[in-house]
Amino acid sequence: MRVIFMGTPEFAVPTLQKLANSGKHIVIEVFSQPDRPKGRGKKLAFPPVKEAALDLGLSCYQPESVRKSEVIEHIRELQPDVVVVVAYGKILPKELLEIPRYGCINVHSSLLPKYRGAAPIHWAIYNGEEESGVTTMLLDEGMDTGDILLAKTCNISDSTTMGELHDQLKEDGALLLLDTLEGISNGTLKPIKQDETWATHAPLITKNDEVIDWERNAEEVHNQVRAFNPWPGSYTHFRGERLKIWKANVGVNLEPLLKIGEVRVHGKNVYVGTGKGILALLEVQPQSRAKVSAIDWARGQNLELGEYFIAEPDEE
Q1: Domain of 233: which CATH number?
Q2: Which of 30, 65, 128, 208 is most buried, most CB within 10 Å of its CB?
Q3: What mean pLDDT is reported for the chain?
């Protein structure tokens, strides 16, 4: 097939690589979002998909909008059989969706119709799901509402982080896309309508989502810490400064039980009271400092009895 590939972040890279190296398909052009300022120096940086495209010897087109008539006409002139979309970051207009012979196929990092939206991996872990997966679907004008083509499931353990699930799903998605194209080309794959009764949403992560609410139970806080590791991180405040929590476990009960937000060293561990249960901290990051083990942090603070974490957002 003649394929246009649209993608931007690291998640999309394995799919592009496997597609380009498949020997069965021709990637006629790669679309990615424009270069953006990055880092402290705010220097323009290539998106990961652009870097991968150049490494593969493919041209990369980076329009600010895919809705402009000249972009639509450019795609039409390329005569693609299919447009593959993986975390491109832009909604495609109907006029574009109708161009390719086999439609526009999206690789989405959830088991649709659950977790439609921008952050499906984060919210699946945040909500304590025990499984996730990837889905290929035909794009329509809605937000992840198109007909399902194929899906692949994977398990989520109680220690899986967002980063670990992301890395697994990006590889699973690449293989699933190749299987999807094979099924479409030989006529064995039939689209299936999504069941709207199972639909859930996965919106963008906000700054308020990062704040740990210690009134939630220990398992829920643990899920939040996993869901936002390595990005954007979960934090609380201690002695007026931000403290990021990177790793934790649901802890054993302590006598007497800790109050909500109360933090205490017990033996070689650091525990925090929640709305229900105790959370054991494993790795933290003080403000403007590197990550350290929770016990090393607590010893450096000379932690006293009756000290509390405060659930409040950073001041703007």
Answers
A1: 3.10.25.10
A2: 30
A3: 96
> Mind listing the pLDDT tens digit for each residue in 220-240?
999 999 999 999 999 999 999
**For the residues of 183-230, what is the DSSP string, one character each?**
HHHTT----B---GGG--EEPPPPGGGGB--TTSBHHHHHHHHHHTTT
Mean pLDDT is lowest, of 39-48, 68-77, 157-166, for 39-48
pLDDT for 2 beyond 60? yes
Distance CA 24, CA 20 (A): 9
Query: What are the C-alpha distances in Å from 49 to residues 53, 56, 225, 304?
Result: 6, 10, 28, 49
- pLDDT at position 312 over 90: no
Retrieve residue 83's tokens.
């447009």
Question: 80: closest CA among 135, 34, 25?
Answer: 25
Contact yes or no for 56/16 (Cβ under 8 A): yes
Q: What are phi and psi of 260, to 5 degrees?
A: -60, 120
Cβ–Cβ < 8 Å for 150, 176: yes
Characterize the bridge pairing of strands 292-293 and 278-286: antiparallel
Contacts of 88 (CB under 8 A, 6+ apart): 6, 7, 8, 12, 31, 32, 33
Give the pLDDT score at 13: 98
Residue in the block written with tokens 């952050």: 119
Dihedral of alpha carbons 11, 13, 19, 23, sign: negative
| Structural domain range at position 157 | 2-202
Per-residue burial over 61-92, b = 16 or more CB atoms within 10 Å of its CB, e = otherwise? beeeebeeeebbebbeebebbbbbbbbbeeeb
> Is the pLDDT confidence value at 256 over 80?
no
- CA-CA distances (angstroms) from residue 207 to 37, 229, 238, 315? 20, 14, 18, 11
* Contacts of residue 249, Cβ cutoff 8 Å, sequence gap at least 6: 222, 279, 280, 282
Start-to-end Cα distance in the chain: 50
Q: What is the pLDDT of residue 40?
A: 77
Question: Are 98 and 182 in a shared domain?
Answer: yes
Cis peptide before 203 (omega within 30 of 0): no
Question: At which of 202, 220, 242 does a domain end?
Answer: 202
